[in-house]
Amino acid sequence: MAVPVEQRPVNELGQLQTGVLYSWATLDLQSYVLRLATIWALVFALIGGPIAYQTFDPFREPAEFFLSGSTGALLVVAVAVLRIYLGWAYVGNRLLSASVEYEETGWYDGQLFVKPPEVLARDRLLGSYTVKPVLNRLKTTLLASGGGLLLSAILLVGLITSGSDADGVYGRGAARAPRAVMTDGVLYSDKVKDLSALRSDDEAAAAEAAAQGGIPGYCGDRYFKAFAGGQYCAKFEGRPAGRK
Question: Which residue spans traverse the membrane (predicted)?
Answer without folding.
Answer: 32-53, 65-86, 142-162
